Amino acid sequence: MSIITVRDLMAETGVAFGTSGARGMVVAMTDRVCYGYTLGFLSYLEAQGDYAKGGRVALAGDLRPSTPRILAACAKAIRDRGGLPIFCGFVPTPALALYGFAERIPSLMVTGSHIPADRNGIKFYRPTGEVLKADEAGIADQVLNLPDDAFLFGDMLAAQENLPTVTNVETAYIERYVNHFGTNALAGKRIGVYQHSAVGRDVLATILKGLGAEVTLLGRSETFIPVDTEAIREEDVALARDWAAAGHFDAIVSTDGDSDRPLLADAAGTWMRGDVLGIIAAARIGATSVVTPVSSNSALELSGSFERCRRTRIGSPYVVSVMTEELAEGATIVCGYEANGGFLLGSEIAGACDTRLSPLPTRDAVLPILLVLTTPGASVTQQLAALPQRFTFSDRIQSFPPQLGGRLFHSLLAGGADERLALQSYLFGSFAGEACTIDDTDGVRATFASGDVIHLRGSGNAPELRCYTEANSKPRAADLNALALAAVKNFLKLA
User: Fold this and answer.
1) Which of 277, 322, 286 is nearest to 307 (CA)?
2) Is residue 494 predicted with pLDDT exceeding 70?
3) In this structure, are 396 and 322 located in the same domain?
4) 119-126 and 465-471: which strand pairing?
5) In a domain, 162, yes or no
6) What is the per-residue pLDDT across 447-456, written as a single tens digit (0 to 9) for each?
7) Same domain, 375 and 395
8) Where are the beta strands (DSSP E) in 247-385?
9) Which of 290, 346, 425, 477 fits a disulfide with 429 by CB distance 3.0 to 4.6 angstroms?
10) Per-residue pLDDT reduced to its tens digit, 279-322
11) Is residue 158 part of a domain?
12) Mean local confidence (pLDDT), 94-105
């Protein structure tokens, strides 16, 4: 036996544990590492009273080539910890979460979400909700006894581990939305479904058909495509416009790889930003309290549609924590959303058919798409036009080493308020004007006298620098982003 902590595994392999669970390069996510993370998760839950030997643990995965191998390592860890693995198949993350919450059992999803196929991850769920920031240290500190004879050279399983027979969780997820909206909710609508390699590509099409839509399947791929709903690829922009021109759709819809983040395009094939989609969805359910990260579009507050708007750090655990606070304080209808479009329902809401939709406090792609598509008498374009006209854009510098990020943010956050504002004005003033305020809730978010916003932060999921911009027009937000990233590159070269 090798005695090691999860924190030791993190340091040894570079497979980080944080907001989105464990994430790393596939070559680093060996069977031993994935086994160890799963043991640590269950050991922590056992100490918390949320798991006991003999208990069931649900697991599922996305369509990456590495996912089946990692699932097998996780299943062995569950068995070795005295548990019963319940394999839910290759299904959307929110479908797995819905099942785990309903059964009050732990669950884990093998997915790297939107990041490239040379990376993967494991997302963990408690029986009642997401693993939150407060849980991370407890999991990282778990002491593991890893059986040396279970792994061969290269830290791969010595013996084949078979996954159990698939337990159907898709039906309940599909019925959740068909029952809520009704079988005629999308009658007469023509919807294109961009399938690519999303794990929920068929489930999404089934739901839309169940609601009465005429569905056309588009762009299915058997090779994994890293579709990022927050930084949409130029290829996907062009595809949607071409499909719209040829297909005469009311809308085109899609999701990211594990199908917990939505993509929705209007009849012209223009993809809607996720933070705008969230505003419309929140208004449609009559939300009284809306929680979203600091990077989301300020049209939320400007709309005047909500009693309370709360801002958090980026990451669904932060959103869930504040949603919980709002519910404890007596808020009537609570929801949250992220800039990537993932929607979190914190309160039960009424359905169109005398039904009640139960809360699902984790990222979901289907609900926000359907809330927009079923809005009576208003197209996607009309709903967008009704919002305050603020526009966001996001992009990234890929292969951005963490040490370079550390150097950048050390400079940006050095000194007092005046020094920080002066540096922002120095970096970006030639095209954004004078910096007026800085928000360091998550990274560095500067607002300029022109009304422009530039927000920089390191990605928690990949070696990337994220840049979020906001302005009074779409072209300006995009240009501002490109100029800001160029200024950062120049600064790091000269500093």
Assistant:
1) 286
2) no
3) no
4) unpaired
5) no
6) 999 999 999 9
7) no
8) 251-255, 262-265, 289-293, 308-312, 334-337, 343-345, 349-350, 356-357, 360-364
9) 425
10) 999 999 999 999 999 999 999 999 999 999 999 999 899 999 99
11) no
12) 98
The alpha carbon dihedral of 373, 376, 377, 382 has a sign of negative
Domain assignment present for 325: yes
CATH number at residue 404: 3.30.310.50
- From the list 341, 466, 342, the residue with the least C-alpha distance to 395 is 466
Judge if 337 and 420 occupy the same domain: no
What are the pLDDT digits (tens) for 418-466?
999 999 999 999 999 999 999 999 999 999 999 999 999 987 666 889 9
Of 261, 289, 288, the closest CA to residue 277 belongs to: 261
The verdict on residue 251 lying in a domain is: yes
Q: Of 368, 192, 197, whose CA–CA distance to 274 is shortest? A: 368
Question: Contact at 8 Å (CB) between 311 and 292?
Answer: yes
Catalytic position from the list 20, 66, 107, 113: 113
Supply φ then ψ for residue 207, to 5 degrees.
Answer: -65, -45
Residue that is last in its domain, among 337, 364, 385: 385
Q: Which has the closest alpha carbon to 450: 483, 490, 418?
A: 483
DSSP assignment letter at 41:
H
Please tell me the total count of domains within the chain: 3
The reply to whether 320 and 344 lie within a common domain is yes
Opening angle at CA 63, ends 338 and 275, nearest 5? 15
- Do 212 and 341 sit in the same domain of this protein? yes
Ordered DSSP codes for 232-272: --HHHHHHHHHHHHHH--SEEEEE-TTS-SEEEE-TT-PBP
113 is a catalytic site residue: yes
Query: Could you tell me the sign of the dihedral formed by the alpha carbons of 316, 318, 320, 326, in that order?
Result: negative
What CATH number corresponds to the domain at position 333?
A: 3.40.120.10
Of residues 305, 383, 374, 300, the one with CA closest to residue 337: 300
Residues in the chain: 495
Q: Calculate Rg over the CA atoms of the chain.
A: 22
Structural domain ending residue among the three candidates 121, 150, 179: 150
Q: Which domain holds residue 444?
A: 391-494
Residue 145, number of CB atoms within 10 A of its CB: 13
At residue 445, what is the residue type?
R
- pLDDT tens for 333-383 read 999 999 999 999 999 999 877 889 999 999 999 999 999 999 999 999 999
